Every structure is written in structure tokens, then in C-alpha cells.
Amino acid sequence: MWEGNSQYDKLPSTLVKNGVLFKGWENILKKISQETGDKIISVECYSGIHYEELLSYFKRIPHALFIDCSKLFKPEKEILRITNSFITEDNLFGYLSNLSIQDYYDEGKISIVREEIRSVQKNGNIILFGYGSSLLVKPDLLIYADMPRWEIQQRMRKRKVMGLGVDNREEEFSIQYKRGYFNDWRVLDKHKKKLYEKVDYWLDTTQEEPKLIDKKTFYAGIEKTAQKPFRVVPFFDPAPWGGQWMKEICNLDKSVSNFGWCFDCVPEENSLLFDIKGELFEMPSVNLIYLKSKEVLGDPVEARFGDDFPIRFDLLDTMDGGNLSLQVHPTLKFARESFGLPYTQDESYYLLDAKEDAVVYLGLKTDIDHDAMIHDLKTANIDKDQKFYAEKYINIIPAKKHDHFLIPAGTIHCSGKNSVVLEISATPNLFTFKLWDWNRMGLDGKPRPINLDRGEQVIQWNRDTDCVTNQLYNQFEVISSGEGWIEEKTGLYRTQFIETRRHTFTEPVSHVTNESVNVLNLAEGDEIIVESPNNEFEPLVVHYAETFIVPASVQQYIIRPYGRSVGQKCITIKASVRF
User: Fold this and answer.
1) CB distance 270 to 255 below 8 Å
2) Backbone dihedral angles phi then psi of residue 544, each to the nearest 5 degrees
3) Looking at the predicted structure, is the pLDDT value of residue 571 above 50?
4) Which of 19, 64, 212, 421 has a beta carbon 3.0–4.6 Å from 124's, enabling a disulfide?
């Protein structure tokens, strides 16, 4: 196990020189008030903000008319009806929504309000507050109160925020998340994409003290980040199987029972930080992807995925923990037909660390009885006195540090206890069909949902021992080498769109992005530095286990050992999109 003082940076940021930031409600409201006077002010929102609290603060700005736009929504019963086909009756899964924020509004109520606005215009400020507020009339000043999805999830768990147009605070977290993932966030992202150029000020209320930046500062940060290697803000979560490794490596709270997940490259849910004169401004990192998809992803990747960031890196820690659930991901055909997904969750496990007894469960043993396996799974999941004997049907492979296991969709798999997995996968992050969870409870004390019926439909029975041995396990191939470095191809499987390369080096290594976003993790070594051969971007120092993103626009970059790692062996694992 890696030993040393933790250097893991939990708050990576982009330095925005000459940026403008206002901190605290008093300063924010004072700044906004200085720009008002017989103006129409729209305050647009993302879900997850503390709606009533923000509304009360903006009411302090002098006004002739204040409109709470949530009051113009259709009745909750009607919103539940129009979203029902996307939310579905399933406990976990829905269908991606095609609704717009306009679908939430009652046209009759809007007509009345527009007439009211006309009657008081030029008699003082008119403040329109809420989701889609800028649609009522064209505002003179537009403020956007944004919110990263990870923070939204924390507030959902605490039952502090509602869904879009519905009060679902008393529902289980999984149901709240499902509404956000399949409907609310789709609706609000669709609307936000039309507003970027119109927003005058961006409001960050993720922390207790709010912060406001202007349009120029916002775009300065976006432009700079899109042209250099960067990191998003990692977030960590306990798990029923979680371990103890990340507590030390990432310097996490020792009082928490365990940490199972570290999500350090999921731009849909991570935050992006701008450092403005020593103050950190937080916003969803997906804003960068929506605004700079071509620069970040590259032309060919954008042509294929639009403004979806297609690569995900996360850590799974089972050190002194337990096995992950035995699981399978849907095939592309199933994912499209069942959930409206454009692609599915192909993935791989790269072992960052492992004890001697670490294993990976991968694929089926050759010539097993399919029907008997499904029967045994059903029996074990129904009768808690029964056990599913995975070793009878599943390949159990000893796992050591730097092994790489390829997991194309439809392959049964899970990581065993006492390992740390760098999971490299396609972005969809909800679509796991659990087949067996070792008769344990979730962190809430309740059984975790099993999806054997769906799982049975997508299991690829030809992913047997021969397939695993010859195609899915340690498929290393030396591609090139030089003085002090070796580059190896490590996968992925031929049906997967992600290509992975491992570099082992003691000397500087030159990289090219090849028109695709690159995502890398420092898998061995204390620290490295990422530099431009032409001084086109500021160097980025990366520490052990940190993930970083290199936009396609960078084209060329150099990685070399740095600080305590000078003269020592370092290893990076890199993912890009295969054409």
C-alpha cells in the first residue's frame, strides 16, 4: 500500500487574473442595486438552490413589482402527469426527458402577469425570480443562480430542496435523484444553454456565504480552462462496501466509517473552481463542456457526442472493506430502447493498489449452466437464508497493482475486497444492474435494489473464461519507447470507444491529444508536472491518484517527474476516444 504524506488537492482551481467577485449578500445586493432603476431584473435558477432563501434576499432590492415565477407553474398534479412517462414507476430508472421549461408554465397565468408588468413599467424595478423567469419578458439585467449536481444530491439527502415544480422532499433519495437525472436537470440544462450569452452575473450559493461574478470574469475563467490541462473538484462518498485507503491518500475525514467512491472526473456532476483574488467561485463543470465542447472534446469527439463529456474516471476503495455488488451494465441496444441513452456504460478496472488477497470477478466460467445460475441468483435474492456461490459460475481472478481488467457492456463483474480500482468508463453513471449483493444492507439499513430481471436480458454469455483470459485481462502491448519511458496500449475491448495507454517513465514524455480530450490519472509516483512545449499554458502539478483533463485544444503537452518524484519511476494511465 502506498505510504507518504497526502498531497492530494481536493480544491483544484483555475486562476482568473483581474476577475471581479462580490462576496456576501450585503455586497452582492449593493452591487446589483447600483445597476437598477426602472429596470426589469431576471433571476434565473438551477434546481437545488435554497429557493425561498434566495427569493427573500432579492426582495430587498427596491422594486415596484416582484414576481415569484414558481407561482406561474401549472399545478403540481399536472406537472406530475406530464413528467410521468420520464420518471416511470421504477425505483431507479426512468427515460430521458424531452420537456422544456415552457412546458411547466400556465399560459393563462403568464398573460395576466405580462399585463401587470406593462402597467407598472418605468415606475420602478420589476424583479422576476425563478426557473425560466427571463422568458416572461426580455430583462435588462439577468442573474443566474447556478448549482453543481453533487451539491444538489447532498441537499436532496437532507430533504432541503424540491424537484422542479413538485415538492418531493419526503421521497427516498433515489427517487429524488431519479427525477433530477432523467427530467429536471435535462429541462434546466436545455434552458441554460440558451442563456449563457445573456447572463450578466453568475451567483454561487453552494457555500454559506454567496459569491457573485460578472460576465467578463465568467468567460475569462471558461476561456482559460478550455486551453489548458485542468482538474475538476473531486467528491467522495461512503458505500456499503467502502474502504479506508482514500482516508489516508486523499486526507479525508477519519471519523466517517468509510469512503467507497471518489468521483474525480464526472463533469456532469463535478464542480469547477475559479480562483479570483484568493476567493474560490464554484460552478458546475459541465458549463465548460456546454460552452467549449469543440475546444475541450475535439472536433471528431464533438461530432459523435455533441456536448456530452464521454469519459469518466472514478476511484472505488474496498481496502479493509467488502466486495462490490455482482453486476452487469446494459448493452447499447438495451440502453437506447429502455432509457433513451445514446451510448452505454462500457468500462474497465485499473488497479491502483491491492493487497495479496485482492481479486476481480469477471465473466462467466466456460460451459456453465445458464439457467441454473439465474435460478440460484433468484433463490438467493428471494430467500435471505440462501447464498449465491459466485465461485461456481464466475471467474475469480487474483488482482495485483497495475493490472487492467476490461469490462465491455454485458459482462458480469465486480471488484473484490482489499483493492483500489480506478474505474475508466463511458459517462452514463446510473445504469448498473445489480445481480447479487452478498446479503448485505445499504448504508440506510435497507436492502439495495437488485435488477436481476434486466440483468438477465443483457448478460453476454459468450464472455467466458477463454474470452476473459485472451481478451479482457492485461491486454498490454508496447507501442513505443524512448530514453527513460515506455508507452503501452492497455485496451479497451474492440466494442468500446475508449482507448487507454499507460506510460511508465523517469524522464519527460511527450504527448499529443490527437483531436480527442485526454483524461489521465497519476497511478504511481508522488507528483508530476504537465507542461506546454511552447509555453502556451500554465504548468499543472498533479499528485498521486489525482485525475486531470487535457482539452483537445492543447494538442501537445509534456509530462515529467516533479518534486519528490524526480529520478523516480512514475506511471500515468491515459484515456481518449477511439475513432
Assistant:
1) no
2) -50, 135
3) yes
4) 64
- Burial of 453 from C-beta contacts in 10 A (0-12 / 13-18 / 19+): exposed
What is the pLDDT confidence band of residue 4, given thresholds at 50, 70 and 90? low
Sign of CA dihedral 155, 160, 165, 171: positive
Strands 419-426 and 347-354, how do they pair?
A: antiparallel
396: Cβ–Cβ under 8 A, 6 or more apart, which residues?
Answer: 359, 360, 361, 390, 416
The answer to whether the CB of 527 falls within 8 A of the CB of 563 is: yes
- The pLDDT tens digits for 297-354 are 999 999 999 999 999 999 999 999 999 999 999 998 998 898 888 878 899 999 999 9
Strand-strand pairing, 485-491 and 498-505:
antiparallel
Q: Say if residues 412 and 330 touch (Cβ distance below 8 Å).
A: no
Instruction: Give the count of alpha carbons within 13 A of 104, CB side only.
Output: 26
What cell was used for 77?
Answer: 398534479
Residue 220, C-alpha cell as written in the block: 475569462
Question: What are the DSSP calls for 351-419, one per residue?
Answer: EEEE-TT-EEEEEEPTT--HHHHHHHHHHHHH-TT----GGGTEEEEE--TT-EEEE-TT--EEE-SSE
What residues form DSSP beta bridges with 116? none
Separation of alpha carbons 503 and 285, rounded Å: 27
142 Cβ contact list (under 8 Å, min separation 6): 41, 42, 44, 134, 195, 198, 199, 200, 201
CA separation for the pair 402, 353 (Å, rounded): 7
Is the peptide bond preceding residue 492 cis, with omega within 30 degrees of 0?
A: yes
Collect all residues with Cβ–Cβ distance below 8 Å to 422 and sequence separation of at least 6.
313, 314, 315, 349, 350, 351, 352, 521, 523, 573
Q: For cell 424540491, name the residue.
A: 162
Mean pLDDT of 479-508: 95
3-state helix, strand, coil split of the chain in percent (to 5) is 30, 30, 40
Element (H, E) at 558: strand 556-561
* Distance between CA atoms of residues 60 and 83, nearest Å: 35
Quick check: 366 pLDDT over 90? yes
Tell me the three cell numbers of residue 83: 413528467
- Nearest residue to 216 (alpha-carbon basis) of 34, 16, 36: 16
Q: Give CA–CA dist 573/490, Å, rounded.
A: 9
Residue type, 238: P
**CA neighbor of 399 nearest in space, from 350, 343, 434, 332:** 350
pTM above 0.70, yes or no: yes
Alpha carbon distance 542, 527 (integer Å): 5
Amino acid at 57: Y
| Cβ atoms of residues 388 and 356 within 8 Å | no
Q: Write out the three cell numbers for 105.
A: 408554465
Q: Write down all domains in the chain, each with its CATH number in brackets.
A: 14-225 (3.40.50), 232-267+309-579 (2.60.120.10)
